[in-house]
Design goal:
Helices cover about 45% and strands about 20% of the residues. It has about 160 residues and is α/β, with parallel strands linked by helices. The model has no long low-confidence stretch (mean pLDDT about 95). Bound molecules: 4'-phosphopantetheine.
Length: about 160
């Protein structure tokens, strides 16, 4: 049975921290599905389609990687995709409480799906999509923190 994992997130936009997690997850699973959250109640800078397209461009739709957006409950989406694993990246301690709550809730909803946590690369431990948006919007450099393509798309949004 092939091991399929879902890597869910807002990816608004994707950062080098996310890319690092995806590359490491790809070594652990047969297939990693990058699932872009398309919750209509949340406000995103990029549309779900823009976020999916950006990620697809970065990965050139390489083997073992799938990218799509999802709505609704993550565990239901995972079941539909035949995935028994969810991948989440962990940065500082401050991530723990939220991740712990999500893990317990997801496990209650579907005990057959395990969440696996990958510790962030320390180079990206202070990185978040939110802080990147602020830096670029205010004219700062995000060099080395996001792919060039993402920086270009951010600049297009802010000008
Ligand atoms: O990158 P984010 O914003 O931290 O990702 C959060 C995400 C998308 C993983 C989470 O909000 C999610 O799973 N949303 C789908 C709705 C859901 O299943 N909620 C219950 C989880 S406890």
């Amino acid at each position: 049975m092939s091991k399929i994992a879902i890597y869910p997130g807002s990816f608004d936009p994707i950062t080098n921290g996310h890319l690092d997690i995806i590359k490491r997850a790809r070594d652990l699973f047969d297939k990693v599905i990058i699932a872009v959250n398309n919750n209509p109640l949340k406000t995103f800078l990029f549309t779900a389609q823009e976020r999916v397209e950006m990620i697809k461009e970065l990965f050139n739709v390489s083997e073992g990687i799938e990218v799509e957006s999802f709505r609704g409950l993550l565990v239901q989406y995972a079941k539909k995709k035949g995935a028994h694993f969810i991948i989440r990246g962990l940065r500082a301690l401050s991530d723990f409480e939220y991740e712990f709550q999500m893990d317990l809730m997801n496990r209650k909803l579907n005990p057959g799906i395990q969440t696996i946590y990958l510790m962030t690369n320390q180079r990206y431990s202070y990185l978040s999509s939110g802080i990147i948006k602020e830096i670029v919007r205010l004219g700062g450099s995000a060099e080395g923190l996001i792919p060039d393509l993402v920086e270009k798309k951010l600049l297009e949004k802010f000008t």
